Amino acid sequence: MEANSTQSAKSSSDAIQIRRSAKAKRLRLAVKPGLIELVVPRGMAESHALAFLDKHKAWAEGKLLELNDKLSRVRPVESFTACPTIPWRGKDIPLFVQEGSRGRVKITVDETVQIMLPQGLGEARDEVALRAFYAWVCRWLRVRVALLAERHALRCNLHHREIRIKHMKTRWGSCGPRNDININWLLALAPESVLEYVVIHELCHIAERNHSPAFWSLVGKHYPKYAEERRWLKFHGGDLMRRFNI
């Protein structure tokens, strides 16, 4: 079990929470909605942690402003089951939602997405359909990401441990301290090239645990057109997160 302790410091823009972690092996800043968190390995001198914070605080505050602005523009959209189409691997395809199943929700995806729901769900219809679709996508995407990661891991000599598909509100992917690769489930709805870029991006974090020039050079070496995929996420990613806010 992880043992943590927290304390707060004030920055010019918001509270900064300092958390000591028994599992952390290095200092890191995590930017979350309304919060900047400095994770400090247990036993590290406070002066060293505060020096690190002072050096990187401006960057973190800028990221916090970007995140808060992005979230402030998120607005509710129409019912999931009322939409006539749904994005799937970068293309809008027809969505059909029907009631009539006597047991579990049934989902099939080919040229269309078909969701068969149990009868009598009433107001829960939309939530049940979306959560069932989320679960189905997670299973499908884990297999797809594992294939991509295996292919690029061999070529890049960057080897991951586990693949996890998650509901992530502010990230498209992450690489854990033990080289676990976490991928946002919404990438199944994005173009295949965007998914591939994010997988390579996270694999490169196994070698470079930051977003330094050396990191981007490594990404570019293994995926030269990554700037195109980053632009796609910048211009279209917010719409996906807004529509599928489960």
Structural class: alpha/beta
The average pLDDT score comes to: 87
Please count the beta strands (DSSP E, at least 2 residues each).
11
CATH names the topology of the largest domain as Zincin-like
Largest sheet: 4 strands, mixed
Quaternary structure classification: single chain
Terminal CA distance: 29 Å
Q: Secondary-structure element order, as H and E?
A: EEEEHEEEEHEEEHHH
Number of helices: 5
Instruction: Tell me the domain tally.
Output: 2
> How would you write the strand order of the largest sheet?
1-2-4-3
Uncertain spans, ≥5 residues at pLDDT below 50? Answer: 1-5, 8-14
What attributes characterize this protein structure?
246 residues, alpha/beta, four-stranded mixed β-sheet, 5 helices, 11 strands, globular
Question: What do you see in this structure?
Answer:
With 246 residues, the protein is of the alpha/beta class. It has 2 domains: 4-72, no CATH class; 80-243, Zincin-like (2-Layer Sandwich). The chain has helices at residues 46-72, 125-156, 192-204, 213-222, 226-243; strands at residues 4-10, 15-21, 28-32, 35-41, 85-88, 91-101, 106-109, 113-118, 163-166, 173-175, 181-184. The protein has a 4-stranded mixed beta sheet. Strands 5-6-8-7 form a 4-stranded mixed beta sheet, covered by helices on one side. A hairpin with a 3-residue loop joins strand 7 and strand 8. Helix 2 (125-156) packs across helix 3. The longest helix is centred in the middle third of the chain and has 32 residues, at 125-156.
